[in-house]
Amino acid sequence: MGFPMTDDLTIWGETHILEVVRAVPGLVREVLVDGNSRRMDDFLAQLSRLKVPVRAAERLDLQRMAGEEARFPLAVLKPFPYVSLEQVLNSGEGRNFLVALDEVTDPGNLGAIIRTIRFFGGAGLILPEHRSAAVNSAVLRRSAGAAFQLPIARVTNLTRSLEQLKEAGFWIYGTGLSGKRTIWEEKYPEKSCFVLGSEGKGIRPTVAGACDEILSLPGRFESLNVAAFSSVLLYEWSRQTTPSP
Questions:
Q1: In this predicted structure, what is the pLDDT of residue 148?
Q2: Number of folded domains in the chain?
Q3: Which of 3, 88, 225, 236, CA to CA, is 20 to 30 A from 216?
């Protein structure tokens, strides 16, 4: 009997699976392996030591569960472990930044942004519960494992959450074409929060109203993809705030 379609999170690849097992113990429900292969002895031995259930499967079962791109070995995960806003606030020490996303609905963009935040040492990410991409299997693959190394909170009211960040000492930067200062002109404090919006509409007016400053990125085209914009913006923050060697 074949495996049914599932809404569970899935990832594949020996390295990624072992990273998740070690980063978040207990998150992996089971690992599916090719029942006809005998080439993963070391990998299976590590899973056994880590007490991760393993099941043999056929390739058609694998693709039925996780799509045609799925490969062995494949891990089936429990729901993504979001944290509270308070945990995000307590995750950084000294020099750090946060990112909040407003109605960014594309999983590919979300995964790329998570990877960028992790690369530049961000303290966490804040997502709205509604009208926003959630951390799904596509996001996990695009983030290349970074999603499990970054505190990610989902909040019911982004504007109210930004006010809490202000109370905690963060300076809130919105982004958009209407910004009177560019990202190059601003001198960033160590505790900065950057709010990025959807490519079509940008951040909502209510969210913009909760920001201390709106920044723009001038260029020779209308705008950048939101994930690309995040890379440029966070690089500039890192460049300004990293102590000279």
A1: 92
A2: 2
A3: 88
